[in-house]
């Protein structure tokens, strides 16, 4: 319930700003480049490249003639900026020469791939739906669909990486529960056997004094685990919640914009 309320609040405040195609493209493209960055890249360089790529996308889609070529070019530019070309070239140079069987398998995949994709995926149905929508919306359908595709890819791919990182941190927090100990070990074990046994027995019964208690290495106290839960909520759960809410609101707004443009373009206007 709280998530739906925050999503509605964010979408309400950003609705007027997102009506501009340039702003609705700038937010997810900048976010995607900031999340999907090159290994070892500094925070300042990452931020500058993200803003530059977002401004380029906003500038291209501010024109009416922007389309699929612009969306594909921006995605390709994003991949180039995060790729380590030196490592790719080094690995490619160390690859063994392909055999005749491998070349034949690649050629067969290229020939059979399109035919197999048309039988396994609803490509014809999607093409028919796009053609019908274009009859209603006209040529503007190409630019709006390309903008929606760019926004969707730029929003969902980094959110997928972010979700995996969130699950890892959440699992580490759950695993830390296993380190919470119920008591300490006796510090007088190296002394006489009887004294050590009696001290150990009292400690295992929970009656031992706290002077000789020593907590084993790697164990946590209950208070420390409770504090870690608060840190997890403030530093991990809340940022993940906000990022997912804002980015998905932008993506949903672009999808609704395309639907309304398709439905309302040819509707009769009453005066």
Written account of the structure:
The protein is an all-alpha fold and 271 residues long. It folds into two domains: 2-180 and 220-264, no CATH class; 183-219, no CATH class. Helix content is 75%, strand content 1%. It contains ten helices and two strands; from the N terminus they run H-H-H-H-H-H-H-H-E-H-E-H. The protein has helices at residues 2-18, 21-35, 43-60, 68-82, 85-94, 100-120, 123-137, 140-175, 193-204, 222-264; strands at residues 185-186, 213-214. It has a two-stranded antiparallel ribbon. Helix 8 runs antiparallel to helix 10. The longest helix has 43 residues, at 222-264. The two termini are 41 Å apart. Residues 1-8, 10-18 and 183-213 have low confidence and may be disordered.
